[in-house]
Amino acid sequence: MIILRRYIYCLIISICLIEASVVNAQDFAFRNNLLYDATLTPNLGIELKLDSVWSVGTNAGFNAWDINKSKNKKWRHVMVSPFVRHYNEQMFRGPFWSLHTLYSHYNVGGVKFPLGIYPKVRNHRLQGDLLALGGSYGYNWQLTDHWHIEVELGMALGYTWYKEYDCPHCGKYYGEKHRLLPLPKLGLNLVWTNFKRKPEPEWPDLPEIIEVEPLWLLLSNVLPNTGRAGSLAEDNPILAHISEYKPYTYEPGVLYVYFPVDKYTLLHDFRDNAATLDRIVDITRQIMSDSVSNVRRIQIIGQASIEGRVAWNEELALNRANALKQYVQQHVPTPDSLYEAVGGGEAWAEMRARLVELMDSTSTNGIGKGALQEAIDVIDNEPDADRRERQLRRLDRGRTWKYIKQHVLADQRTSGYARIYYEYEPDTVADAINRAVELLRTDCSDCHHEALQILQQVSEDPRAQNALGVALYYCGRELEAIDRLRRAAGNGDTDAQENLRLIEKKRNKQ
Q1: Which of 45, 215, 369, 508 is the most buried (most CB within 10 A)?
Q2: 3-38 burial code (b ≥16 CB/10 A, e <16)
């Protein structure tokens, strides 16, 4: 009887809210979730227009009967879900997003949910309450003046407290429990609105727009040539210009090579060292052989895991850095002055970053997130490295340390190939072309002749051809201009292709 009264109270509140809203709203919509109907749960929603794109409303569902006569399956529940919605284009049409809350009182058991979610209710009965907060995104299609259909997908985070029993109908009582759980939202809604959409206004025919001839031909600045290092830097985050140099700090995405436990002998075929070492050597060799760019500094940081004495780990980390340095020098002759090989000591920063990454993952491989947070707190609050390691070993009777050794420490026996810093020769040709382009953009005849003189000095560079053609045209040398623009267009310069079209159009009008 208590459950039934809760059902009735929730329904009465929802109906009152709907009736009061309809009376005071100019535009509103009713909706029914067809997918919710498929679970044999009657449901209804009301949505009220606030302005041109915002609305509020509530959805409600009520199921008060057992799924089968034997009462081995239960799906009894009442649900109320207020929401606020925003339409991206116009009210009751097109894409929308919404924020919603949800309350439900339920008595559920013997139910098999799709995709294996909520497995506990397959063989148990849960009776309790649920509160949730979430969001969703969807799209509304208008079918007729009043009828629409919409699809909605979303997710919410819920908190539930309930009593657990052994089976859907009877059985042992396990006590009261509570938990957080994700709640997916999926709606295929049939919608009825109370208004007809106004027809689009018919605009009178406008007079033909006369195209105005552009005042200037098209010009673009050119990018300086940064050499092989600049092009490699686009796909290799370990490369940076020397102006960005900084002492090593932990950054994800650098290249690492790995060492056996407590060793500093660099093995080419250990773990995935082969691919990493080949990539390091290839990048270094390409830049060293380039005539435009060159290597200024190779920064290598040796590391060791946190196991063992601090003094030994610091020595081990430095030896590992020197081992990688010697490997690179054996394959690409480079002077010692280019290298910054230092021992990074124990990799506490990397270890903490890995623990945070594991906490943020959907699965922690059998360890609770609370245990991971305790380990992070120890790292943050204990300044002495040896005491810090001892505290970690004692967490949760050693279980946390066992997890750390298996999932974290193996990847810290590394030497970090942190960064190659490079520089390139100044591209004086690009500077000259861009200076001439700025002169050509002015309404000044003398500036145009000055730009032509600058461009004639770099006339063999393919990047200068379009700007040189424009300068020749502005200075009255049309035939030479067309020849230069055709060269640029033949090299795929889209500005030059358009400039040829504009010049031809002007000549046809004359």
Answers
A1: 45
A2: eeeebeebbeebeebbeebeeebeebbbbbbeebee
The pLDDT confidence band at residue 69, using thresholds 50, 70 and 90, is: low
Is 84 in contact with 98 (CB distance < 8 Å)?
Answer: yes
Q: Would you say 53 and 86 are in contact if contact means Cβ atoms under 8 Å apart?
A: yes
- How far apart are the two ends of the chain, measured CA to CA in Å? 94
Global confidence as pTM: 0.44
DSSP state of 116: G
CB 194 within 8 A of CB 146: yes
CB contact at 8 A, 415 and 321: yes
Domains along the chain with CATH numbers: 2-193 (2.40.160.20), 250-423 (3.30.1330.60), 428-509 (1.25.40.10)
Which range is most confident: 242-251, 296-305, 482-491?
Answer: 482-491
For residue 149, count other CB atoms closer than 10 A to its CB.
15
Contact, 439 vs 450, CB < 8 A? yes
Structural contact between residues 152 and 136, judged by C-beta atoms closer than 8 angstroms: yes
Q: Are 340 and 301 in contact (CB under 8 A)?
A: no
**3-state SS class at 482:** helix
Cα separation, 420 vs 438, whole angstroms: 35
Q: What is the pLDDT of residues 296-322, one digit of tens each?
A: 888 888 888 888 888 888 888 889 889
- E strands present in 114-204: 125-142, 147-165, 173-193
Q: How far is the C-alpha of 366 from the C-alpha of 362, rounded, in Å?
A: 11
Handedness of CA 367, 369, 370, 376 (dihedral sign): positive
- The CB density around residue 419, as the number of other CB atoms within 10 Å, is 23
Return d(Cα 315, Cα 309) in angstroms, integer.
10
